[in-house]
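Bumping with the actual sequence this time:
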Amino acid sequence: MTPKSVIARLVQQEDINFLLTNRIPRGLLTRLIGRLSRIENPLFCSVCIAVWRLFTDLDLSDAKKSRFNSVHECFTRELKEGARRIDTDPKTLVSPCDALLGACGRIERGMALQAKGFEYPLLDLLRDEAACRYYEGGLYATLRLTSSMYHRFHAPADCCVEQVLYISGDTWNVNPIALQRVEQLFCKNERAVLRCRLDSSGATAAAGVLTLVPVAAILVASIRLKFIDVLLHLKYRGPNLIPCNAAVRRGEEMGWFEHGSTIIVFAPPGTELIPGIEQGTRLAMGQAIMRCK
């Protein structure tokens, strides 16, 4: 058994994993790692990436750059031109990011599923009663970015970002082990709620509002949106409600996590999951995940 496989097996032990990633000063460690990741030293960066590869399946072959000055630069890397195919069917909504599909399905009684046995109220997550009523009977999809994945996220369809609501919070790990142990975890963590109005007059054959919720986590508590000149992070103190009028095209970059985390997509009634898209599916940015009727 190789050293990498031994380390991986240890980390995959649920009790050990939960202890290492949650029973520690999460906010302090997140800020510390944020500073270390920005150290610009090619040797230090190379060593960190080598250690990173011991724990993950990090693949940089599709990155725009082959050398990085800092770990942060590697985390927030851009893709080579044409590295992802964007589905062009006007009736589909595409995955905004590379991800593993977590809990997904219909929104019923104002609730969505975090993990088996754990539901959470949309109102606690979105902080918007009108939005909760609007999405009743609609779809939700939880997209989990692992640490080795491409960390930028893109528009699921032609739309206009009308509003960003920033909600400060904790930095619990959002891996499956934590989701099965910490109730309403997404509602506790730092997050941004992006209200996006679909452009039915363009290349999207649907009207209505789509909501994206990037959720930060331990080591990754910073969210950058290209259409607002604000870095959303644990020390940000407002304004929490930021009006926007940012038109984005299907597949266009919207922002990035400083390291990676989770994006929850909420679509209105009249949408359905693409056949074959189910919990555990590995998704590529631009892949169709929902269809508008």
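The tokens above came from a reply further down the thread. Residues 3-75 form one domain.
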